[in-house]
Amino acid sequence: MNHHSMTGAILALALLSACAPSGDRAVQDALEDINVIDESGLNDVMMSVADPQEAVAYFTRATREAPDRIDLRRGLAASLIRAGRATEAVSAWEAVTTHPEATNDDRTELAGAYIRTNQWERARGALDAIPPTHETFERYRYEAMVADAASDWGRADSFYEIATGLTTTPAGVLNNWGYSKLTRGDYDAAERLFTEALRHEPDLFTAKNNLVLARGAQRNYNLPVVPMTQAERAQLLYTLGLAAIKQNDVTIGRGLLEDAVETSPTYFEEASRALEALS
Repeats (TPR): which ranges (predicted)? Predict the structure, then answer.
């Protein structure tokens, strides 16, 4: 509860306490309102910034005490996703979507839980059950991933493009779209998408690594001009070295691996092992 809300509640309680005995019920109602506000704030904290495992424990207890409350069920399902417990999250989101107050956003999150557990047909079924008028970033992001898994490239590209336009933070979906292009062998398009992702989020290392893979697949063994730490530079050199070796450019690959070992601020076991294997 913020300072102003608490102050207002205290003043209200003081006024009610000064009233006739008939005010006792009003005092109890005011106390219950304070509890609801406090609990709502705690739920928000648990769902966003609390330790994921602690949040799971909190919402598990809360849903046990109030099993009919959909907000607590949502909190448990979302916390299980944050905690990396996707299999349990599937059951939790399924329970949410059977609730009479379930929304299309809940059904969208169920599709996401199915995707995290590689249940692609179930994910498609969950998305197909959502009306086409429900146009959200998460819905189209999941639609793109499901189409990708089915190698339905036209639909995947269309959904990725729509999703990108529905968010102010598109780096993640651009990276996914680029990886899709990378797996199809469209390396030039993949490179453009990874570069665009990094314009939005310069610290997204996954996009940096994928960008290096796309360049390496085109036999471009120069590191891209993007912000990187010394440790990231070593890792990217290692990725580029492996890409070169994969294309039988062994001498170039060996040189890149040596650069990775020399660049790394700590002992780079993987790169050292790769060099030993080449020797």
Answer: 171-204
